[in-house]
Each structure stands twice: as C-alpha cells, then as structure tokens.
Write a structure and sequence with these properties.
By secondary structure, the protein is of the alpha+beta class. The chain folds into three domains: about 1-115, 2-Layer Sandwich (Phosphorylase Kinase, domain 1); about 125-295, Orthogonal Bundle (Transferase(Phosphotransferase), domain 1), CATH 1.10.510; about 360-520, no CATH class. It is about 55% helix and about 10% strand.
Amino acid sequence: MQATSVIDLPPGVHVGGRYKLLKAIGQGGFGITYIGWDEEQHCRVAVKECFPQGICIRDAGTGAVMPARESYEPCYMKALEYMRREVRTLQGLNHDSIVHFKDVLWGNGSVFYVMPWLPGGTLRDVIETRRAEITPEQSMAWLRVLLEALRYLHERSITHRDIKPANIMFDEKQNPVIIDFGAALNRAERTGTTTTSQGAFSRNYAAPEQITGKGHVGAWTDLYSLAATWYELLTGVPPEAADARLAQDDMKSLTKQAAKIGYPLEVLALLDCNMSLNVNNRCQSVEQCLQCWKDGTLPRLENLVERRRKTIVLTSAFVILGLGGLYGAYSAFLGGTPARYLEQASSPSNREALVQYVEEQIQAKDFRNLCDEYMRKYSVLKGQHAQTIQRMVNQYSAAIEQVDHEEAGEKLFNALEDEKRKILLHFSDDFDQLRKNFLNARAAYSISRIDISTKVKPRNLGEEIMMPGICEGIAQDLSQYESKFLISSSDQQDATQLLEKSAKLEEKIAKKNDSLRKKR
C-alpha cells in the first residue's frame, strides 16, 4: 500500500548530482514540477519529472518510477516520448518570453528536465488574487509581449496548442513567459488535421478545431487560446468552451461588456474576432493581428474558393449572355441583380428545393444517421461501464466486510487501486476508440461550408446567389448534430463516478483497519 501512495519525491533528493529538490509545487496529467536548487550556480530552478498519473507508481524505498502493470508500459513510454518532444522543442528556442531549457537528466526510471525558476507566479495566480489591480495599459503590454513570443514560435513552424493562464508565468521583472510545450506541434510532426488524441489541451481555452479534431491547426489556433485567456483576465470568468459554443453560442462578447471592462473598443473587438468559432474569421497570423491592432481594424478575409467560383461564373455569364447582356450579368454580382434571380433567391419554395438538392449531394441524411448510430453505441458503452463500476462497488463492499486483520486490509486496498487503474484505462481506450472510429467513418462526408460549396455546383444564377447562405446553414446544422456525439463522448462522467466511488471504498477500508487496530 505504501509504494502506490508515494507520488512526489521528498525534499532533499538530488537529481543528476547537481540539483536538489526543495518541494513539489504542481502536478499535471503527465508530470510533477518541483522547486529545486542548482548547487553549481547557486540559484533556484524548476525541475519537471515525467510521472503520468494513473499508469505508473513510485517505489517508496528507491524513488524509482515504473508502470503500475506490464500492460501499462506502452502508455508510460508514450508519456516519456511527450516529455522528450517537449525537450527537443525547447532546445531550439531562444526568446526572452519563452521558457529556457537548462538541462535534461535521466534517472529513477524517468526523465527530468530543468528550467530557470520564474518567481513571479502564473497568470492564473494574477487572475485569482489581484486581477482588479491590473491596469489596461499593463494588460495590453503583456498581450503585445506574448504576441511577439507567438510570432517567434510560428516563424519556426511551432504551434503551442495549450496557451492558458496556468501556462503563462512571470519572471523577476514581471515580464510574461510562455511555459509547458508538452502539447506543441512541430512541422515535422504536423499532419493535415489534428484530433483530440494529438496532444493535451485545456477545454475552456482550446480552439474548436482542437476539441472536435476537425480542421487545420496553426497560428489562428494559438491566437484563439490567447484571446480566450485574455477574456478571463478582463472579465474574471473563463470563456465558454468552444464545443459548447458550437452547439449554442451564449458567450457574451467583450465588446458588449466594453463599458464595464474599460478597455479600448478596437482591442476588445480584435479579441472577440480571434475567438471566432470559424477559423476564417480569425487573424491568420500574428503579423496580421498586430497590424489590425495598429490600424484599429478587423481582418477582412475572403475565401479563395468562393472568389474563384465567382470569377468563373462571372466570365461564363459574359460569354453566354453576349455583349447585349453584359450589364445584367455584371450587375448580378455588384448589387443590380436581375429581377427574376432576386425572385428565385427570395422564394421559400426555391430555397427549400435547393436545401434538399444540396443535402442529397453531400449525403446529409446518411451523415445524420451515422451520428445517431454512434450516439447509440456511446449509450451502450456508458451502460456497460456503469455496470462495471457497480460490480466493483458490490465486490469490494462485500470484501471489506470479510477483512479480519490489517494485512488483509492493505492487500484489499492495493487490489482496489489496481482495479481502479485498470478500469480507468479501459474507459479511456474504449471512448477514444469509439471517437476514432467515428472520425474515420465521417471522413466520407463534407460538412464545412467550404467543402459543401466546392462539392455542390449551382445549376443556375439564382442558385449561385442562394448557395453561400444555404451552405452556411447546412454546415452549422450538421456540425451541431455531430457535436452532440463528440461532446458526450468526451465527458469524464464515468471516470468521475468511478473515482468518487473508489474513494469511498478506500475510506471504508481505512476505517476497517482503524477499528482492527483499536481492538488489538
């Protein structure tokens, strides 16, 4: 029981013969962060140790880290690879507002890397303790510094992918510094799209393309997360998660809160713009964002596919209509559309017929059926897991009653811990596989507005006029339909229920052991 309950290394332990650990200050899904002392340079450092929770244990005597079970070894090796990737990313960077890499060490079955100590705490600390003291001038100065740091990263084809208040720290001069590159994506690792399995993210600050796994990640992804972080700094409340906003966007924009916030309206509008759910409505680069800030404007983006199509249709119209109809075709695109096409575009029956035509071309009905099928599979999986949890509760509740000495209690405790880890791992594997199967199956369908408008050709000029709005509406409808499954299958309700019930069983075992000790 003792070996599995030890997590942090105790104060005074030396790493690499040079760094003395003073105390653990933070623990995430993949690692533990310590304050350390560099005995050669006589200064404080931050030391991060790879210790993925739930799949590894530490020997209480030696401090060695090892997979909790042999079957967990692949997961542990994957966690080590995440750490190695973070080290590789940091080794090539040199910017005052990006955390510096100092040293990497192997030992105790794990890997440690060392960074300079940042004494100013995190932006999360600022928000929780002294947000009201931060002036607009100070906040905007920090924002500019961080934008320059992101520009430096993006120029090197690195997307951070986890900008949030806890990952922005302050140095001794109170300058902001970006930390934690465990989720960063390099060009060599980049694929056409990103999915939820490709690196960790923080839901309230992650762009929709990260959460849903649909679409490319890039500078616009980090700009979304930075804007979401500033939303919380300015309002005091975290922004609504992007996947929830996809279903129904109730988040109050910063510009609507301008009177209360007291910041320049153009800055608030730019932050709102970078929190757009549609990638094409955000700034596409830090350079564009800074230029918009300087000019007091918002990005004006036009989809190239739509622009090319418009050019092609306009050219065709000139040819078909001839010189006598040049004005009518020209005015169709510049505001003077011929009456018969305006009537087509305003007719409910024509719009309904076009919706039906577009949905048939992109197999919208089949896509909805696919979503429904996976919602049913998800419900079945949830039911199976609920039965697993209840079986565990029944089994261990009965076993606790049979405990007649402390050794039996400790043995039961260890067995319960092992069972919990096993079930948690199965939860993760089962739901990840279900989402992976769904994403593979949905690849046959095109549901973004751009995909739809590229795939479905209008049959006349009236449909050409109606097509953008029709495609936008259908894409939003199908995205919301899909998000019901993605949001449901991403929740942690089963895992939370298991942890709560497991904790209650552990408490019962502890009470039983206490009562046995008192009887001795």
